[in-house]
């Protein structure tokens, strides 16, 4: 176990759990918390294939800590936002699968972080919200792209203008989460899914988290060409051979 000021990490072979522990602030995002998230992903042991991300104290993450919000010049604001983008890209495209087990507040920057993860599980207490319009600010951690691609620009405009809240079941319908579960069920499901995902072929997982979102940004022709390259690379690995052999032998594959 590794404990920082704002986070706590536990490792178990191919799995890691990363918990936000600013419970007195509903795990609000500060520069210090962002730095610990970055450090966690930078220093993940090579054996780790799946991370479970969750928050202590009944909340996932309530977004930017407005109590620590400082006045910045436009130049400083750009650098601050781009740093968020860089860390969120580490989560989404670092090659390790991240599962969000969400409770309570998934607001502002918390929603930006959640949508950078690959599997999202929401308990009934979850509230999805982008309240920046009511705070006189604007999203800067990637929501225009990640949340916007899920909801569509039209629905996101209304969500931000009104401060509208969505619950877990509405989030499931809209795509903000992939599972809506009862109280106390998010972490057990996350652990079950993490074990299953960790058993996949590593290169298959790597290309799923790295290629699909990028292909979504491409033209049809470029996307199909990139798919061919990804398929050729993955299908020539020893794990692809093992997967085919296991299928023919009617047994479960054993990947590297």
TrEMBL record:
Q: Where does the source fall among the domains of life? A: Bacteria
Alphabetical keyword list: Lyase
Keyword Glycoprotein in the entry? The reply is: no
**Which Pfam families does the entry mention?**
ECH_1
Q: Answer yes or no on keyword Lyase.
A: yes
The record, for InterPro entries, names:
ClpP/crotonase-like_dom_sf, Enoyl-CoA_hyd/isom_CS, Enoyl-CoA_hydra/iso, Enoyl-CoA_hydra_C
Similarity remark: Belongs to the enoyl-CoA hydratase/isomerase family.
Q: What is this protein called?
A: Crotonase/enoyl-CoA hydratase family protein
